[in-house]
């Protein structure tokens, strides 16, 4: 558990100037009993300091209070709609050639995604919107792979992402957290420009639509 110290009010819940100490955690099930008891002890021993605990709801409230510059500093610069429409071979090359390659099966099965795939994987509205936006540039990814000198690049990248997904699926991560991990794995917020983030999203969507990552309730086999 990480400790976050600050002074004043960031949630509007405290109207005085007393110092406070909030402990930030990412346990979706809440804090264990021993930690709760320890925080209660600290409330008594460290008064007048205010002791509290933060999890996702409090952090989301804090995010809503940040302006655009602070959000970009925290989360990285996000691509604009214009940048997304203009991604081309340079951005896709930066992303695709940075992904490790794995040898695919000799005869890989290509499946068309079910229309129920997003719901089946319980992906959020925000992630669904990411996928919807990414679909607009799938054709650019396909064009890049078809024109790349090594015709096996697409299959090798798909195998790398498929293996990454299968490894993450064996953990306690939710599908939402797995989607975020795959974005980062492919290079989200690591490229030289925000246009590279748009390319990352297009690549992830391209693979999602081809059933390389995430489960499909009834995908149908299609010809390569």
Give an account of the 3D structure.
With 224 residues, this protein is mainly α. The protein has two domains: 2-65, no CATH class; 72-221, no CATH class. It is built from eleven helices and five strands. It has helices spanning 33-45, 56-65, 68-75, 81-86, 89-96, 117-120, 125-135, 138-147, 153-169, 175-186, 194-209, and strands at 2-7, 19-24, 50-54, 111-112, 220-221. It has a three-stranded mixed sheet. Helix 1 links the parallel strand 2 (19-24) and strand 3 (50-54). It is elongated.
Features:
224 residues, 3-stranded mixed beta sheet, two-stranded antiparallel ribbon, 51% helix, 9% strand, disordered N terminus
User: What's the total helix number?
Assistant: 11
Average of the residue pLDDT scores:
76
How many domains is the backbone divided into? 2
SSE-based structural type:
mainly alpha
Low-confidence stretches: 1-14, 220-224
Task: Round the Cα radius of gyration to an integer and report it.
Answer: 22 Å
Q: What string gives the helices and strands in order?
A: EEHEHHHHEHHHHHHE
What is the distance, rounded to the nearest whole angstrom, between the alpha carbons of the first and last residues? 48 Å
Q: How many strands? A: 5
Task: Give, in spatial order, the strands making up the sheet with the most strands.
Answer: 1-2-3
Tell me roughly what share of residues is in helical segments: 40-55%
Q: Characterize the overall form.
A: elongated
Strand percentage, roughly?
A: 5-15%
Sheet of most strands: 3 strands, mixed
């Amino acid at each position: 558990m990480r400790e976050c110290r600050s002074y004043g009010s960031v949630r509007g819940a405290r109207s005085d100037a007393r110092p406070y100490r909030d402990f930030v955690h990412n346990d979706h099930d809440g804090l264990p009993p021993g930690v709760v008891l320890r925080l209660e002890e600290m409330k008594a021993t460290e008064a007048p300091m205010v002791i509290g605990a933060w999890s996702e709801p409090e952090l989301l409230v804090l995010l809503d209070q940040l302006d655009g510059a602070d959000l970009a500093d925290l989360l990285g610069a996000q691509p604009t709609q214009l940048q997304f429409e203009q991604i081309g071979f340079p951005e896709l090359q930066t992303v695709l050639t940075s992904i490790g390659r794995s040898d695919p099966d000799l005869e890989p099965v290509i499946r068309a995604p079910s229309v129920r795939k997003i719901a089946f994987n319980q992906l959020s509205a925000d992630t669904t919107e990411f996928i919807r936006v990414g679909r607009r540039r799938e054709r650019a990814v396909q064009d890049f792979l078809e024109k790349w000198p090594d015709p096996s690049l697409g299959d090798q990248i798909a195998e790398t992402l498929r293996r990454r997904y299968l490894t993450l699926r064996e953990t306690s991560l939710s599908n939402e957290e797995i989607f975020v991990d795959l974005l980062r794995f492919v290079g989200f917020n690591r490229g030289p420009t925000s246009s590279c983030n748009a390319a990352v999203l297009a690549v992830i969507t391209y693979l999602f639509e081809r059933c390389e990552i995430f489960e499909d309730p009834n995908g149908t086999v299609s010809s390569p």
